[in-house]
Design brief:
The chain is of the alpha/beta class and 207 residues long. It has helices at 36-42, 74-95, 109-120, 164-176, 194-206; strands spanning 10-13, 21-25, 47-51, 55-57, 60-62, 102-107, 127-131, 150-156, 180-186. The protein has a single domain (3-206), classed as Rossmann fold, CATH 3.40.50.1820.
């Protein structure tokens, strides 16, 4: 496979201890190195694939763009989903990891991206772990079959980017599509709770 097909900046950390791969999706203003320690904490035996978002908005790297109210510019989100899906397929062939054993792990912009990827291309993921997330699509309607998929949501009670109403809509939506949904809430804001990481590491070990 020509190397230029994987020209998107990314980190690949292979592991021979497990067939699982974590697809790490960073938040706004971060890069492909930002969530590596999170990935190792969630599943130290998994291989890790961590790509960089290709959008830039307000001087920050993102996977897709937002409006001022932090709702997704869905045209850019759909484009980002298709680009990431193609990258994931190429990376699987190039690095040789099992495409049926991939879990997307995201924070903020990357968490929205994980949810969108599962919605549009459920065949590419076992499930997602989403920190600081909300409903991905509002304007565009999708009805994927998520039977057998898992969705772990870890949000903060005071997170202005993940308001309760939109979070509840997202939960009901994933459940209506057949996914097994588990929700964790911490009392803080837009951040990752260490306690949630410990809980989710145990959950992933059983998945």
């Amino acid at each position: 496979m020509p190397e230029e097909k994987l020209s998107r900046p990314h980190v690949w950390l292979p592991s021979s201890q497990s067939a699982n791969t974590l697809l790490l999706l960073h938040g706004s203003g971060a890069d492909e190195f930002d969530l590596l320690s999170l990935g190792k904490a969630l599943d130290p035996s998994a291989s890790i694939l961590s790509p960089r978002g290709l959008a830039t908005q307000d001087g920050m790297v993102r996977f897709f763009e937002y409006f001022e109210d932090f709702s997704a510019k869905e045209e850019t989100l759909i484009e980002a989903v298709q680009s990431l899906a193609e990258f994931l397929k190429l990376a699987s062939g190039h690095y040789g990891f099992d495409p049926k054993r991939v879990t997307a792990v995201g924070f903020s912009n990357g968490a929205h991206m994980a949810g969108a990827l599962l919605t549009v291309h459920p065949e590419l993921l076992r499930g997602i772990v989403a920190f600081g997330t909300t409903r991905a699509f509002v304007e565009n309607e999708f009805k994927p079959d998520l039977q057998g998929k898992f969705v772990f949501i870890a949000n903060g009670e005071k997170d202005p980017y993940s308001p309760r109403q939109k979070s509840e809509e997202m939960i009901k939506e994933f459940q209506s599509w057949g996914a097994k949904v588990e929700v964790l809430m911490h009392p803080g804001g837009h951040q990752i709770s260490p306690e949630h990481v410990e809980i989710l590491a145990r959950e992933l070990a059983l998945s």
